[in-house]
Specification:
By secondary structure, the chain is of the alpha/beta class. The chain is built from 17 helices and eleven strands. Helix content is 47%, strand content 15%. The chain starts with a strand and ends with a helix. The protein binds nicotinamide-adenine-dinucleotide and magnesium ion (MG). Nicotinamide-adenine-dinucleotide binds next to helix 1, helix 6 and helix 10.
């Protein structure tokens, strides 16, 4: 790497954002921070901006601007607030941008970053699920490089034949199975948000932890993989692998299967995107296979985890279906975290919305936002029907 690379982190206070900060703060001579953003965590944002001497810090909740200004007083870091301000800093020049906002709320900022160009490290899978073709189209048009941070997609990226995809027979995503892998539906009926966010292998934000427990996360990842790796929709498989050591695999037409392995620590895939096309050191514990002892694999059970089936169907149907699935799921997960619906209701709400709401495929970003808003309205109705 020559000179310092300029970096922006969208969603800097979250699980992925703080892991990214951890890596860049170990090499302050290598990186200079343009912008850090967060939604509500003023203290976390201001502390990170001070430590990294960021040029600007943006808080999404506009009501918190005065608090952010106060927290940054005397630091020389500029303060801004509101969703539009996040989109504005995403559009500012940076060599590398981490897209780590959770949910479709990240879509406008990530599109702004893609249109500006440079390298975009994508953790925010919901944006790609909702607007995949528009995002990959913008990346191609602007010559932006989209690098996958999601551990499975980062693994596939490392094993994939980028020269000739027709040599690839299957892309196989591994899934931990989540905390309820061995549970019956009856047992899952009464699980609490506290139980559901406790992931066996990974420490992550609340929303993706719930998605991992329902297996919706793996469903979103199938759609994400389809947009990142140009093989047909029928070339993607999921296999449950409880140890989360094999992060994913690529099978070739000659029968060879390449896999990427490592300890489950998101700093490894993040570092891969930070240093790409070279490599950088990380503090991650080396993989000790003798200590792991065994690697298990099993087929996913769509009867117990219907969210995965819904996502697969949305992938095959294409059009607006993935955006509808994603928005309905965001509403249902928030309601579960708020203890307004039960765990098994999450997939039921998504299924209900998909049944009743079937808008035409989006042609523009505005179409995607309309589909997203419509699906959220329908999810609200589905929850009212449940409560009645
Ligand atoms: P998180 O909840 O820990 O952090 C989310 C970040 O986004 C925070 O900085 C928050 O302030 C910001 N944010 C939240 N709502 C916002 C809004 N409406 N507008 C602007 N900013 C907002 O989430 P996370 O676990 O870090 O996940 C971030 C993204 O990365 C998600 O899309 C998730 O699916 C993906 N991802 C996470 C992991 C992981 O290990 N955590 C792994 C793979 C992919
Ligand atoms: Mg993943």
């Amino acid at each position: 790497m020559s000179g310092r690379r300029s970096i922006t982190i969208l969603g800097a206070t979250g699980s992925i954002g703080t892991s990214t900060l951890d890596l860049i703060e170990r090499e302050p001579e290598a990186f200079e921070v343009v912008a850090l953003t967060a939604q509500r965590d003023v203290a976390g944002l201001a502390a990170a901006a001070r430590r990294t001497r960021a040029r600007i810090a943006v808080i999404g909740d506009a009501a918190l601007l005065a608090d952010l200004r106060a927290a940054l007083d005397g630091s020389g870091v500029q303060a801004a607030a509101g969703h539009d301000a996040i989109v504005d800093v995403a559009a500012e020049r940076a060599d590398w941008t981490m897209a780590a906002i959770v949910g479709a709320a990240g879509l406008k900022p990530v599109m702004a970053a893609l249109q500006r160009g440079g390298t975009i490290a994508l953790a925010n899978k919901e944006s790609l699920v909702s607007a995949g073709d528009l995002m990959t189209g913008a990346a191609r048009q602007r010559g932006a490089t989209l690098l996958p941070v999601d551990s499975e997609h980062n693994a596939v990226f490392q094993c994939f034949d980028h020269e000739d995809a027709s040599r690839v027979r299957r892309v196989i995503l591994t899934a931990s199975g989540g905390p309820f892998r061995t549970w019956t539906r009856a047992e899952m009926a009464s699980v609490t948000p506290e139980q559901a966010v406790k992931h066996p292998n990974w420490s992550m934000g609340a929303k993706i932890s719930i998605d991992s427990a329902t297996l919706m996360n793996k469903g979103l990842e199938l759609i994400e993989a389809y947009h990142l790796f140009p093989v047909g929709v029928d070339r993607f498989d999921v296999i449950v692998h409880p140890q989360s050591v094999v992060h994913s695999m690529v099978e070739y037409i000659d029968g060879s299967v390449l896999a990427q392995l490592g300890t489950p620590d998101m700093r490894t895939p993040i570092a891969h995107t930070l240093a790409w096309p070279t490599r950088m050191k990380t503090p991650c514990a080396p993989l000790d296979l003798a200590a792991v002892g065994r690697l298990d694999f099993e087929a996913p059970d769509i009867d117990r985890f219907p969210a995965l089936g819904l996502a697969k169907a949305a992938l095959v149907a294409g059009g607006a279906r993935p955006a509808v699935l994603n928005a309905a799921n965001e509403v249902a997960v928030a309601a579960f975290l708020g203890k307004r619906v039960a765990f098994l209701d999450i997939a039921a709400i998504v299924a209900d919305v998909l049944d009743r709401f079937d808008p035409p495929p989006p042609a523009t970003l505005d179409d995607v936002f309309e589909i997203d808003a419509g699906a959220r309205r329908e999810a609200g109705r589905a929850m009212e029907a449940l409560a009645a």
